[in-house]
């Protein structure tokens, strides 16, 4: 679905990623794990046209989307749920969803709202509440719903369990599994908390200091005898 080839990217003259080759397979959850500052969010920003591409390519299927502006990437069916600033706290839950779906015709918006509410019943229950009054987990569900309502083919999720209590993180990740299993969406999940992500993913990459240190099945990475050393970049 999405591939990067020999990708070097960053911000301005600063390079953060070095020779990154990633393949996000359709209909599966691909996890990108790694320590804080490894460059995981930069990879998502590179795909979305929010980072500086120094060299390499980004493909959506057979289409070259390298350096494509963010609004055009979104129209191609890629939804990005960032870690920060993903909701409008002063708007109601439903207003947030409607803002996210501003490009959809009204007749389609109704169907997409029903889909989001069926996936996240708590959002329907709190549809008239200000988003700023939601709990951390409910806000993450709203952020995912705002991505889902756009009728995407691929969802890029950045650190969606950060600062959540373990029980709420579990609930949020269960919804990510439903995106794959029920809606048949392609999911690229970026997480600092590796075990959480690897437990639900089909495929995994380990990113350390801007370079790929592991590619393969997520369960194999979980069981790797040198996983801790790989994760910390220790040789």
Structure characterization notes:
It is built from 10 helices and 10 strands. The protein has a domain at 2-77 and 152-232: 3-Layer(aba) Sandwich (Rossmann fold). The strands form 2 sheets. A 6-stranded mixed sheet has the order 6-7-8-3-9-10, sandwiched between helices. With 235 residues, the protein is α/β, with parallel strands linked by helices. The mean pLDDT is 93. It has helices at 40-47, 70-75, 93-100, 106-119, 121-125, 136-148, 166-181, 194-200, 218-222, 227-232; strands spanning 2-11, 14-24, 29-33, 52-60, 63-64, 78-81, 154-158, 186-191, 203-208, 211-217. The chain is globular, with a radius of gyration of 17 Å.
What labels would you give this structure?
10 strands; Rossmann fold; 6-stranded mixed beta sheet; alpha/beta; single chain; 4-stranded antiparallel beta sheet
CATH superfamily of the domain at 2-77 and 152-232: P-loop containing nucleotide triphosphate hydrolases
What's the architecture of the domain at 2-77 and 152-232, going by CATH? 3-Layer(aba) Sandwich
Fraction of residues in helix: 25-40%
Number of helical segments with 4 or more residues: 10
Mean pLDDT: 93
The SSE order reads: EEEHEEHEHHHHEHEHEEHH
How is the CATH topology of the domain at 2-77 and 152-232 named? Rossmann fold
Low-pLDDT stretches: none
Strand-pairing-aware structural class: alpha/beta
The CATH class designation of the domain at 2-77 and 152-232 is Alpha Beta
Cα-atom radius of gyration? 17 Å
